[in-house]
Write a structure and sequence with these properties.
The chain contains seven helices and eleven strands. By secondary structure, it is an alpha/beta fold. It folds into two domains: 115 residues; 64 residues, Arc Repressor Mutant, subunit A (Orthogonal Bundle). The longest helix is centred in the N-terminal third of the chain and has 16 residues.
């Protein structure tokens, strides 16, 4: 399921400053607290006139941590950012070692998003493999890439890290964890 959260409507058109960011983080968590685990949350910036890095550091960074908490298990996707805000969020993501997905357009369920933030080479290759194969397990990746010499446990650790970063969803089937991307296509920059 998708929960649409319009920042301008709920938080205002000017998102700036650390104190306001802290207050908005609490408000967003309160509004979204009843969202079922596993759901996607579209953080929609349409109608927002100003967004500063200091605000995002106090709202977006802890919001992603809150979403990743096992009690919440939510998958935020940013929508309707301007290029100027993309640069702010890129710096913020790198500084805080986070990643964000940015979907463009106003259709319902986004089918494609751009990665904001950077991944080290092993995580990047793992994400590319999941995008390519749609859904995988660590054991499947070990079989698909025998020349890499990476065992299923190492693949699973990488998959879990991407899941913690909110780039992958997972489902349990028997004893296996099956991972797939939050949106069908992820454009990996950088």
């Amino acid at each position: 399921m998708i929960r649409h959260f319009e920042l301008a409507r709920h938080l205002g058109r000017e998102l700036q400053g650390r104190l306001l960011g802290r207050r908005h983080f609490g408000q967003a968590c309160e509004i979204l607290a009843d969202t079922p685990s596993g759901d996607m949350i579209l953080l929609d910036f349409e109608g927002v006139d100003v967004m500063t890095g200091s605000w995002a550091n106090e709202m977006v960074v802890p919001f992603y941590e809150w979403a990743a908490d096992a009690r919440n298990d939510l998958f935020p996707i940013l929508r309707n950012l301007t290029d100027r805000w993309d640069e702010e969020l890129q710096l913020l993501a790198n500084w805080n070692q986070q990643c964000y997905l940015w979907a463009k357009g106003n259709e319902g369920h986004p089918s494609q998003a751009t990665l904001i933030g950077s991944l080290d080479s092993p995580l990047r290759r793992t994400l590319e493999a999941v995008v390519r194969f749609t859904q995988v397990t660590g054991a499947e990746l070990e079989r698909k890439f025998p020349k890499e010499g990476i065992g299923a446990t190492a693949w699973n650790n990488r998959l879990k890290d991407l899941y913690t970063r909110r780039l992958l969803v997972r489902t349990k089937q028997g004893r296996e964890q099956i991972y797939s991307t939050v949106v069908k296509g992820i454009l990996i920059n950088g």
